[in-house]
Specification:
single chain, mainly beta, six-stranded mixed β-barrel, 4 helices
């Protein structure tokens, strides 16, 4: 994955004046972290949208502030409920030598023979998992290939996930949890009951 960078400036405006910033295409944000003073910042809304699309909330973003490239992850990105545009973002400055925990999206790929040939129904029990890794090793997403689901008895467990090198499941007790399975189709008669 390519290095994601985002130019930022310190922000002096707070409160109601933030709406004026947003109207000018500027996203109010804050950056904080371990041994780092919480700092209000602002970034280009357009640039943030692009960085968020590339990195999500689990990959590294280098926030360029006052001539320094600060390694961070997007800890939270708040959208407007009506317009769906970003209205605020929190960046968590990380230490590249310390492991962190983050939620990583699962992306289901491939085609299940049980769905295609047997009219089975794909059931996804989990769409995101908690992992632990050094910040630079955190994946943007983890692909789950469902093409191995050939019968109604087949399932994909947490322990079956192809985790990248240096990435571990946060909760080791959950290795037997089912991520995806194929459910038998329900007949018209059963629906009538």
């Amino acid at each position: 994955m390519q290095k994601v960078e985002l130019k930022a400036e310190k922000r002096g405006l707070i409160g109601k004046s933030l709406q004026n910033l947003r109207e000018q295409g500027v996203l109010p944000a804050v950056i904080y972290g371990h041994d780092f003073e919480t700092t209000p910042i602002q970034v280009s809304a357009k640039d943030f949208e692009k960085a968020y699309h590339q990195a999500g909330e689990s990959s590294l973003v280098y926030v360029n502030l006052d001539g320094q490239a600060l390694p961070a992850i997007i800890h939270e990105a708040v959208r407007d409920a009506v317009t769906d545009k970003f209205i605020h973002a929190d960046f968590y400055k990380v230490n590249l030598k310390e492991k962190i925990t983050a939620g990583v999206q699962l992306v289901f790929t491939g085609e299940s023979p049980a769905v295609k040939d047997l009219a089975g129904i794909l059931v996804k029990n989990i769409n995101e998992i908690e992992v632990e890794a050094l910040p630079q090793d955190l994946p943007h997403e983890i692909e789950v290939d469902i093409s191995g689901l050939k019968t109604f008895k087949d399932q994909i467990l947490m322990k079956d996930l192809p985790l990248p090198k240096g990435v571990e499941l946060k909760d080791k007790e959950k290795v037997e949890e089912i991520i995806a399975l194929i459910q038998e189709p329900i007949s018209e008669e059963e629906l009538q009951k």
